[in-house]
From TrEMBL, chains A, B:
Gene Ontology biological-process entries: tRNA nucleoside ribose methylation
Claim: tRNA processing is one of the keywords in the record: yes
Subunit note: Homodimer.
A Pfam family annotated for this UniProt entry: SpoU_methylase
Domain tRNA/rRNA methyltransferase SpoU type, first and last residues per copy: 5-154
Gene Ontology cellular component list: cytosol
Name this protein carries in UniProt: tRNA (cytidine/uridine-2'-O-)-methyltransferase TrmJ
Family, per entry: Belongs to the class IV-like SAM-binding methyltransferase superfamily. RNA methyltransferase TrmH family.
Gene3D superfamilies to which the protein is assigned, alphabetical: 1.10.8.590, 3.40.1280.10
CDD domains linked: SpoU-like_TrmJ (cd18093)
Length: 246, 246
């Protein structure tokens, strides 16, 4: 089950790190690697460092943007060492593993890692439901990329094993989670509605829109929520247009 | 306190691994590295891989036997992937971290790692109080040396931080969470706005209002969110009233 969880590496510079990540993933039972604009791939150095995990590299998907890598995902974690201007919901590796294991479709879960030098951009982080933070020595916080991946995969595997051992089947007609694209659709619709009622006029501040996006993402919308919110936006826009034409 | 815990590497073949171990240790606040008969040390490759953790390498102690490395220790863990002929007390990384943090003198604690190829010998393992086992994919269990060290140091640091946090009060400018009453205030305001745009007309279904309430509650609103949402409701109601009076 956990093998379908997506590990996404953005703009990795060193192919050796890609190989080490493949090995770290396979050690902990994960298989799905997605590379966004890797500097060098495929590459002999990556294959060598992957050791027996070469199959992960062979099946790796290469894409050109983070959005492309995660657009169908329902639960997205972005790793972040530094504090950002907008406080986003933050989780530790352990909390991340708990959330991942609770999520019904592991093939809609992504954990995203930035470049070796500077991590994920604020733009990339704003696509994520949660920011994932590995508590570390404040005097020397920057982990090697493959080590960070190892820790996350380790926590996921440990929780998986624990859950397997408990073996109890919790069933129920769970709601259908919304994908990132569904949520972004709501976000755009909302922007139109807010414009119609002059809430954002003439143009919204970047911070306000970022806060609204965060609010939608942290709510972990399901498809019922999406339909209700779109209905609300539609009603607002319709009402305003009606009164403005008459 | 945890900085004095000893990481002991036995007969390491690849100097790159020694460097990566130094970095992994420093990331998690550990400082004391002991090398038993390293194949190549010091070595430029090690220094390069250590990145900013070169100080750990410079202070590393080199000895000629495991016994020499741990003879003054009171609590010794030996990592072991395979089952051995003699059943020894076994611990996971988490259990290891708990034992380490409970031990009074951290400078008498050692965690020992074997060679890259075959791990610790039975002879070496017999010097240890506990065998330390990292649960991993049964089809591909062998972790890279530095990754194994990273996981152990990570668990120790997390337990250390947890213990620290229990002692002092949790501070930080976290967002102010909204109380249930704040959320219900938003809910009522939203109901008025939805009525204004005829989204609920003449009266809402119970299920719809329940879903909206659930949506607000699951978003775990903070006071910034409350203010934004109330601003949105106000703008909707105002805009509609304006167009209806003119």
């Amino acid at each position: 089950m956990i093998e379908k969880i997506r590990i996404v590496l953005c703009e990795t510079s060193h192919p050796g790190n890609i190989g080490a990540v493949a090995r770290a993933m396979k050690n902990m039972g994960l298989k799905k690697l997605v590379l966004v604009n890797p500097e060098k791939f495929p590459c002999a150095v990556a294959t060598e460092r992957a050791a027996g995990a070469d199959d992960i590299l062979q099946q790796a998907e290469v894409v050109t943007s983070l959005h492309e890598a995660v657009k169908d995902c329902e639960l997205i974690f972005g790793t972040s060492a530094r504090m950002r201007e907008i406080p986003w919901p933050k989780v530790t590796p352990k909390q991340c593993a708990e959330k991942v294991l609770k999520h019904s479709n592991s093939d809609k879960v992504a954990i995203v890692f930035g470049t070796e030098r500077s991590g994920l951009t604020n733009e990339e982080l704003s696509l994520c439901n949660f920011h994932l933070y590995i508590p570390a020595n404040p005097q020397y916080e920057a982990l090697n990329l493959s080590q960070a991946v190892q820790i996350i995969c380790y926590e996921i595997y440990q929780h998986y094993v624990e859950k397997e051992q408990q073996q109890d089947t919790l069933l129920g007609d769970a709601p259908v989670p919304a994908s990132l694209d569904d949520v972004m659709g709501v976000f755009e619709h909302l922007e139109q509605a807010l414009r119609a009622v002059d809430f954002i006029d003439p143009k919204p501040t970047r911070i306000l829109m970022l806060r609204l996006k965060r609010l939608l993402l942290k709510a972990r919308l399901d498809m019922e929520d999406v339909n209700i919110l779109r209905g609300v936006c539609k009603a607002i826009i319709y009402k305003v247009s009606l009164s403005e034409t008459t």
